[in-house]
Amino acid sequence: MHVSITDDEVLDLVSAWPEMECLYLDSAWDWGISFMGVTFGGLAGILERCPNLRSLGVNLDTFPPYDSPVHVDNQNTGITREKFTDLSVGHAACEDVEAIGNLLAGIFPNLTQIYRAHPIDIDYDDLSDQNEWFERGNEWKEVESFIIQKRMKQLKQNDGQRCTNGLC
Q1: How far apart, in whole angstroms, are the C-alpha atoms of residue 71 and residue 79?
Q2: How far is CA 96 from CA 62, 85, 93, 138, 142, in A?
Q3: What b/e sequence results for 66-90 when a residue is b if at least 16 CB atoms lie within 10 Å of its CB, and e otherwise?
Q4: What is the pLDDT along the chain (168 residues), one digit of tens a residue?
Q5: Most buried among 43, 62, 97, 162, using CB within 10 Å?
Q6: CA-to-CA distance for 166 and 68, rounded, in angstroms?
Q7: What is the SS3 assignment for 109?
Q8: Calculated CA dihedral for residues 64, 70, 75, 79, nearest 10 degrees
């Protein structure tokens, strides 16, 4: 079974369970079917309604234009969830590692894992099928690496500021 869900539908759904900590909506397998995903605006809405959420799996719609209430000039504007560590993006593409990395790092300062769906109908004899899936997965690993590097840079800057203030 695959789920096709819009932002409004997922927000109606999660509004019924505001104390939820984990939610996965058919994000583990890529059925090779084009269907709508949850945008970054929908993601922000989920986080607003479920402040205890630690992990989420949705088919994320990562294509620009990014939702203006959430994303302005590669920066998160608003919601942050520090408890959140795991994100499954379903079949999502990642066309802009830096923009998506900045956005996710801002929303999820403790994000440690980003998962992409496994293809359901991959032809293991056809290398082009395998390559496409692995390339898409590698893009999300690049986002993870970008976020880690960004965190390390921020920690070094914070340590440097502490030292200049005599707190070393």
Answers
A1: 11
A2: 9, 21, 9, 13, 10
A3: bbeebbeeeebeebebeebebbbbb
A4: 555 678 898 899 999 999 999 998 865 555 454 455 788 888 888 999 999 999 998 888 887 755 444 444 444 456 778 899 999 998 888 888 998 998 898 888 899 999 887 766 656 566 565 556 566 678 899 999 999 999 888 888 877 776 666 665
A5: 43
A6: 40
A7: coil
A8: -150
Question: For 73-166, where are the alpha helices, taking DSSP H only?
Answer: 97-107, 127-164
* Count of other CB atoms within 10 angstroms of residue 59: 24
Range list of β-strands (E), the chain? 22-24, 29-30, 55-57, 71-72, 75-76, 86-88, 113-115, 118-119
> Which among 100, 24, 97 has a CA at the least distance from the CA of 67?
100
